[in-house]
Each structure stands twice: as C-alpha cells, then as structure tokens.
Amino acid sequence: MKVLVTGSAGHLGEALVRTLKNRNYQVLGLDVKASNFTTHVGSITDSAFVKQCMSGVQWVFHTATLHKPHVVTHSLQDFIDTNVSGTLNLLQEASAAGVAAFVFTSSTSVFGDAMVPENGGPAVWVTEELVPVPKNIYGVTKLAAENLCQLFHRNQGLPCIILRTSRFFNEDDDQKGIRERYSNDNSKVNEYLFRRVDIEDAVAAHILAAQRAGKIGFSKYIISAASPFSVSDLVELNENAAAVLQRRLPDYVQVYQDRGWEMFDQIDRVYVSDLAQKELDWKPRYTFGFAIEQLKAGEPAKSPMALLVGTKSYHETTFSEGPYPVNEGR
C-alpha cells in the first residue's frame, strides 16, 4: 500500500515513516526540509507539488505544520498559508485521488483558554466535548484545518480522522520557569500524568485511525497517555498535585527522591483519551505508572522510538533566552 506522510522531517513524521517502512508500506515522505525520511522535498502550499505526490496514494498522514514555537518568528499569514491553505491543498488532492483515509494531526492546543481553570476552581477535565477557545494563531489555524477536514468528509465523502495530540517532543520545555526548576526528564515524566503521549503511542494511534477511517467516516480524538486521575481529583489537583498522586501511585515518591525530582505543584488540566482508546482500540503503553516501573528497573522512561527520533530544531538559529523564542502570553 502506498501512503503519504507530510512533515516527514519532523518528530512524528519521522516516527511514522520509520514504522510504516518497517511494516512494508510504500512510503512517500513530503517535507520542505531534506532528510533521510523525506522522498519529496517541497511545500504543501504548492498545489501542483501536492497533486504530484498524491498519485496512487491510499492513506495520507498529515503531520506537517507550523508549531507554537514558530508563533514569535513567523507571521500570521505564514500560519494561514501552511496550516490552512496547505491542508486545503492536501484535502482537495486526496479527494480527487480517491484516498481511503486522511489522518490529520491536530493539537490539544486548539482548546486554548478553555483549559484555564477559574480562580480557585478545579483543574479542567479535557474531553472531546470541551469547546475550543484558541489563544494564538497556532490554535486558530489548527482548528480551521480541522473544520476543513470535516467539510471534505461532509461534501466529498473523504474519510477523515482528526487526532488532537498532546506533547510528544523531547526538547526542553518552552516555559522558562519549568526549564529552570525541573530537569528535562523530570518534567517529561510529570507530563505523562496529564498532557503527554509517547511518540510510539502516537504513531500507533495514527495507524489505527487510518485502518478505521473508512468505517468511522469522520471523528476527532484526543491522543494522550492514560491518566490515573478521575473527575473527583480535579479540585485538589489544582491545589496540591503531589498529594493526589501520593494516594494514587505512592511508589513514585521513592523513585523521585532517589533522583532529586519534584512533582509539579499544580496540575491545571487532564487530557482524557478514553474515546480514542474505545473507538480506535488504542492502548497507550507509555503512562506515568509505566515510566515509574521503567525507572525502578534502570530503564529509560520513554520508548525506543522516542530515543531514535531524539530532538530536533524548530528554527535554523538559536536564541539567547532558551530553545524557543516563545512569548508565553501568545
């Protein structure tokens, strides 16, 4: 089977190409950057290029995007061109080519301000029912691209699955305060509790989505590691996350003490992936509990795929204030 992966030089794109090739798919990797996983160098904003790449393709995995770290360095129009117009080009050509499955990698960032708790209120339980309130151009354009996917399913019958993925990058956190207080490994393991998915699990979700797209037709799913928390924990999570976790998974305490690690003071949201687990038969392996067991055994708290993909640069230059020139108010 011939499949197209956009953003093949990126984290998820590379991981998809690696996995699909290992499963003997014929993989076309599309990206503006040359890489070992890119077979076609060009932009999704070029409709003629996209049409050329779509010939004979049965599945499309659309991971190419401008990300949150680009908000400060790229214009609003850049985001619209890549995230909206580029997605439109892909949808048009996929529909014309009779593609059997279009899987769009969206982001939990579309929820934006909807994930901010009220003052003194509980953490937010983030499910597919939460109404997005994007807070920056990244979220706005990802949501617009989702709506285009829905339109092409409605009007052209293109099977489209939208996966709102949580964090899976290995780079240091984009918030200076997190970088200064927590080691990178510490903060990443903390995030498995509420806002992280391992890239190997993310790849599995994408392939399952493609396999089921024809039957499902159209749907949106949150893709994040299964959390040990419940709705009853939300008030205390936003006040004293460590206390809640000590009740739920007390084994973590000694593991953290041995490494000089800390749990976040507060957890203000919990991404809930129950619907994806049920409807896609997706079974995320890399959870906080799994990470603790790995650390006990002296093993990495991330997958072999995450170690293979490693870190990547979002920009061609470095910045004095850290890995990303992120204005945290945007």
UniProtKB/TrEMBL annotation:
Pfam families, per database record: Epimerase (PF01370)
Q: Matching Gene3D superfamilies, A to Z?
A: NAD(P)-binding Rossmann-like Domain
Database matches in SUPFAM superfamilies: NAD(P)-binding Rossmann-fold domains
> Coiled coil: which residue ranges?
none
Q: Which residue numbers delimit the NAD-dependent epimerase/dehydratase domain? A: 3-172
The superkingdom of the source organism is: Bacteria
Q: Which InterPro entries match?
A: Epimerase_deHydtase, Lipid_A_modif_metabolic_enz, NAD(P)-bd_dom_sf
What name does the UniProt record give this protein?
Answer: Nucleoside-diphosphate-sugar epimerase
